[in-house]
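Follow-up to my post from last week.
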Amino acid sequence: MGLVRFLARRLLLTIPVLFGMSVVVFLLIRLVPGEPAQVILGLRATPEGLAAIHRDLGLDLPLHRQYVQWLSNFVTGNMGQDYRSHMAVTVLLRQRLPVTLELASLAMLLSVVIAIPLGVAAAVRRGGAADRTATLLGLVGISIPDFWLAIMLILFVALELGVLPSSGFRPFGEDAAGNLRSLLLPAVTLAAGLAAVLVRMTRASMVDVLSREFIRFARAKGLRERLVVYKHALRNASIPIITVIGLQSGYLLGGAVIVEQVFDLPGLGSLTVSATLERNYPVVQATAMVIGLMFVAVNLATDVAYALLNPRIRAQ
Amino acid sequence: MATARDVLLLESQRGRLSLARSRTASAGLLLAAVLVAAAVFAPFIALADPTAMDFQAPFRSPTRAHPFGTDNFGRDVFSRVLYGYRTSLLVGTGSVALAVAAGVPLGLVAGYVGGAVDHVIMRPMDALVAFPAVLLTIALVGVLGTSTAVLVAVIAIVYLPIIVRTMRASALAVRAEPFVEGARARGASDLRLALRHVLPNAIDPVLIQASILMGVAILIEAALSFLGLGTQPPNPSLGLMLADGRDIMRDAPWVVVFPGLAIMLAVLSFNLTADGLRDVLDPKGGGG
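User reply:
Got it. Predicted complex:
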């Protein structure tokens, strides 16, 4: 099967996933025990307010018509309004999304810069100091609760040493240095889990490649070890590493939900948590849908990258 | 007929010799056993009633009388951690057991029967895994309400597709094995083939996955309780302790250090167990 056909098939496969996702998000609000409008407004419920929410959500229509109405509204960018602040949800998303994307990218960068050289060094000298460090990072990184790591960094780095801010956010446009300072601890927190997975994968993949015949041949013909490791071996070990980076970057979005809350960053994640606590369902639906869409997009991009790098997968 | 419990027993007997050989698995299992025992026997081990306040002894740093110190109300942090473990392990075992109980039959049927049945089972699972786990948990909790019981159910829902997918993939692989063909040729019924031949030989990856998910459930319970979306006070939870401790951590760092270390240790023990199980049950794949 050619690359074009593979891509076409992979794209078609995302359609049922997107459909299922939208059904889950749509049904969320309908799962609310009791009358959703009453729950949303709580003690501030007035007959007019209840009627307005009924109209917005189309609650008097049959379920499938409600779904179609909700979806067409969503696709055309009408995601309803925040029942607390009366802002359009799209405006909220536009403010919050860049913060989350910057945080996730920074975390990704940090973990790649740390994990890949460490994983390579661990594979080259198995049992050595780097290998022990890598094993430790691999185990601790996936076991450490991210919000606890965040608290520890706030306590010992921000409050005790006072070198970095413990919370808050500066937009990059206003204060670039302050922006990076405010994101550094959250990014380190998020990067820890990803680096753990990445260092394990890099090490395993490199160990596998380094035992192959062509590496022995490259060494036998007298190539310098650096060249053998970084050019011949790492290049051939890169496919599973890149796949893991792609798959894990989706999980960064989930991790951001908690880390943003702890560091008080105005991103999508903290918006999701506060909206959930306030039972602000239109906002919960919108953030769940947007984060879900990004997750699907990242997974799609990973599969495409995988196919480009590895011609064999296209044949399946 | 082999029940899932028989299968687990069989597995544990078959694996015992080699399990002892794997150092990671034994370390993980030992640690997990100690933590489970600490949670079960918390009332006997605890040094004080976890809710008992002592206004004579607030903010005590760790000593022999209070190994993990006391909080702003003079409550013994060590005892509170022990009771917090009860909630963690309850949520972990509850959610994983529910997900396995529903997921193994679904995955087995999807993988063994295939065709339209496979699609009917798997497409809703695809929709559920389309969200990051933490996000889906938060969204569902927001709708269904905040309590420990809801948390168990919600984590089980999030886990279901993972168990179903693992079981399905494994059943698909085993179904194609020659010994299954052989049994079929000898006239075994589909039910017997699926339960007697495919299930026992396909369950290993599910066990490894379940061990990992135990650890993740403990993390999720702590994280959601920390955010105010999980266990509610006055019920004990390690996540709640961290949330309360944030306000006083400059004066009493031990109120946030120990509960967090406790969570990490529990998660670590299940991850080590999973690593060890992988070495024992599947010597070829993974790891490196």
